[in-house]
Amino acid sequence: MLKRVLIANRGEIALRIIRACRDLGIECVCVFSEADAEAPYLKLADKAVCIGPGPASQSYLSIPRIIAAAEITGCDSIHPGYGFLAENAHFAEVCKDSNFVFIGPSHEAMALLGDKISCKQMARKAKVPVFPGSDGAIEDPEEAIEVGKKIGFPLIVKAAAGGGGRGMRVVRTEAELAPAIKQATQEASAAFGNGAVYVEKFLEHARHVEVQVIGDSHGNAVHLYERDCSTQRRHQKLIEEAPGPGIDPKKRDDVCKSAARLIKNAAYSGAATVEFLMDEKQNFYLLEVNTRVQVEHPVTEMITGVDIVATGIRVAGGEPLPFKQKDISINGHAIECRINAENPDRNFAPSPGTIEQFAAPGGLGVRMDTHVVPGYRVPPTYDSMIAKLIVHAPTREACIRRTKRALSEMRIEPIHTTIGLHMQLMDNSSFKKGGMDIHFLERLLKK
Ligand code: MV4
């Protein structure tokens, strides 16, 4: 059992982890940068330690400073949250070598699944559907041309070390293929220090369906059903929901079991998300595995009743999963709206500043995960997400109505936010029908 967790993150997810530690009766220490020195959630931790100046490279991304903070405060474990160092296998290894439990997978499992080429190989072995394409890394553009001849265009070139939309290139003709591979290789070497690239069939119209999974160190792996995250702009999700609207129960079973099989085969411990693209016929193909707790984990918590963050902490401490697959079922529907300090009318330009008026919605089925309080100053230094509204109801229709009700109760002023856009989306006919694909929001914003 873990006794004291160092929280190596900030904002709403730091608060989410503080709450999980409190619920488990575990102590927690939160790090902070000079830009977050006044943040109110720090008072809710047992202790808070300043680890450096605002820029993340000198604070939340500094491995020596975080390890030093854990040592000084007598922590036995480190929770990375999401973003920053959460998917850095070197950091996970340094934690272990410094005798701290990393709350997440082993660095080996993280590296295996974090590399998209080895992840795809693992998936093939586990009989998880992947896009047709090159067997592994492309050594010579000729190989990719052969793939193109065999499976046809369009293709997509992806970097093994990429992810979340970074290091990708769509190729529509054979002539474009060799230059695209050359460029992608150069960019990937410069950006990730790993120039390995691969090609696969490019799917034009698809939904983003991802499966929440969790494993323990005793070989157990359970899925917590899927989320639909198709409503996104430039790879930034805006709305997530669970379960995925319109997914056939047979397909659901198939995609969720595939995800659980993959992490079981990888001997994975902790929470993970297995991302898929799903076409109109509900065929699905693996995209990548996120080896961390995700921003949108609350919608899954609402429909399953599982505390994903607390469970991740318990399995990191060596406990077996406290539930079996048969104990997990879907109850109702949940929608998450990301509230960002951005101006949708100015191309989503960041809108930092002091929040003078702040009113959070409430009532049955309404959850706000936020570190914001009245008078909070949103620093310009970090990600613009300031709150997540999570709404639960018996059906999707009731959930949309309740989300509108909650959005209408919410007040965040005078900064610009995405609240108005969410209100518009809840009234959008395509959204109401559940007919979104990954290009839906960008199409809508062009109009
Ligand atoms: C694809 C794809 C189409 N075909 N792979 C983008 C993020 C990264 N996780 C993978 N991505 C994509 N991979 C094949 N074979 C389309 C995308 C994609 C996308 C995926 C999920 C959510 C939004 C997206 C937006 C544009 C492209």
How would you characterize the overall build of this protein?
There is one protein chain. It is globular and about 60 Å long. Strand 4, helix 3 (89-97) and strand 5 (101-102) form a beta-alpha-beta unit. It contains 14 helices and 22 strands. The longest helix has 19 residues, at 174-192. It is α+β, with helices and mostly antiparallel strands and 447 residues long. The strands form six sheets. Strands 13-12-9-10-11-14-21-19 form an eight-stranded antiparallel sheet, with helices on both faces. The chain has three domains: 4-103, Rossmann fold; 130-201, ATP-grasp fold, A domain (Dna Ligase, domain 1, 2-Layer Sandwich); 207-446, 2-Layer Sandwich (D-amino Acid Aminotransferase, Chain A, domain 1). Ligand MV4 binds at residues 131, 156, 164-165, 200-203, 208, 232, 235, 275, 277, 287-288, 438.
Name the descriptors.
28% strand, eight-stranded antiparallel beta sheet, binds ligand MV4, 447 residues, alpha+beta, Rossmann fold, 3 domains, D-amino Acid Aminotransferase, Chain A, domain 1
List the helices and strands and how they pair.
Elements: E1 4-7, H1 11-24, E2 27-33, E3 47-52, H2 63-72, E4 77-79, H3 89-97, E5 101-102, H4 107-114, H5 116-125, H6 141-151, E6 155-163, E7 166-171, H7 174-192, E8 197-201, E9 207-215, E10 221-233, E11 236-242, H8 249-265, E12 270-278, E13 284-290, H9 297-304, H10 308-316, E14 333-340, E15 342-343, E16 349-350, E17 353-354, E18 357-359, E19 366-370, E20 377-378, E21 385-393, H11 396-409, E22 411-413, H12 419-426, H13 429-433, H14 440-446
Parallel strand pairs: 1-2, 1-4, 2-3, 4-5
Antiparallel strand pairs: 6-7, 6-8, 9-10, 9-12, 10-11, 11-14, 12-13, 14-21, 15-16, 17-20, 18-22, 19-21
Helix pairs in contact: 3-4, 6-7, 11-12
The structure holds ligand MV4.
